[in-house]
Amino acid sequence: MTSPTVPAAPAPRRRVLVVDDDPTVAEVVAGYLDRAGFAVERVADGPSAVARAAALRPDLVVLDLMLPGMDGLEVCRRIRENGPVPVVMLTARGDEDDRILGLEVGADDYVTKPFSPRELVLRVESVLRRAGSPPDPASAPGAWLRSGSLALDPAARRATRHGAELPLTIREFDLLAFFLHHPGRVLGREELMRRVWGWEFGDLSTVTVHVRRLREKIEADPARPRLITTVWGVGYRFDPSDDPADDPVGDGGMGDGGMGAAPASGGGHDA
């Protein structure tokens, strides 16, 4: 007699912390996320958001920009101090500077009010999908990507420079991995948004901000970038390092792994 099949235990629901002082917005967002299969908690002010994020360790935070007690930018900074939890920021402002500020403090995405709750759910799912998957389907365990002092393990989602861990957000990690997979090739902002973010459309300033932040973390002089150069009117090109001075130091025996291509001419940098 065959033994009965034991059904597999359901996967634990991913935890999302919703931070918004507007009870109507918070209720609608939480309701849609709950129906999409997420375990949702809600708080209504900045200090509570920081405390609850530290205690709950959510898989993602949906964070309003305008909050009592502490604004969303400061909340995002403080949450980021405890680890790279993904953040989708909500803002009622149409000013591009506010959206860019949100991205610069580490938000992985933003949605401008008024918004479609279904679109927000899709954005949350997209960010979590990128956070839990290697940035390239061809990535295999132990297959490090290297260029000069840079080393990146797609499977472990770990990146180092001169052997020191790089504090990259999810999108910054995916962007660097994509550049390392495509050295010497000019990549347009639209292509980067489609291939790295998984979006067919969106605000291209998102790409610009993330490239700027990535330069600050991997370039010796971000004001005069040598690795990620701007091709004006087109996009960006990753020029692999062949400078001996940029070889890794104390990188745990990983070696320089330089990709060997000489930097191409004609690049520049963002103003």
Chain-wise SSE layout:
Layout: E1 15-19, H1 23-35, E2 39-43, H2 46-56, E3 60-64, H3 72-81, E4 87-91, H4 96-104, E5 109-112, H5 117-132, E6 145-147, E7 150-153, E8 158-161, E9 164-165, H6 170-181, E10 186-188, H7 189-197, H8 205-218, E11 228-231, E12 235-238
Parallel strand pairs: 1-2, 1-3, 3-4, 4-5
Antiparallel strand pairs: 6-7, 7-8, 8-9, 10-12, 11-12
Helix pairs in contact: 1-5, 2-3, 4-8, 6-7, 6-8
Write a structural description.
By secondary structure, this protein is an alpha/beta fold. Helix content is 35%, strand content 18%. The strands form 3 sheets. It has a 5-stranded parallel sheet, with helices on both faces. It is globular.
What attributes characterize this protein structure?
disordered C terminus; alpha/beta; 5-stranded parallel beta sheet; 8 helices; 271 residues
How many distinct beta strands?
12
Going across the major beta sheet, what is the strand order? 2-1-3-4-5
Largest sheet: 5 strands, parallel
Percentage of helical residues? Answer: 25-40%
Q: Report the C-alpha radius of gyration, rounded.
A: 20 Å
Task: Give a nutshell description of this structure.
This protein has 271 residues and is of the alpha/beta class. Helices cover 35% and strands 18% of the residues.
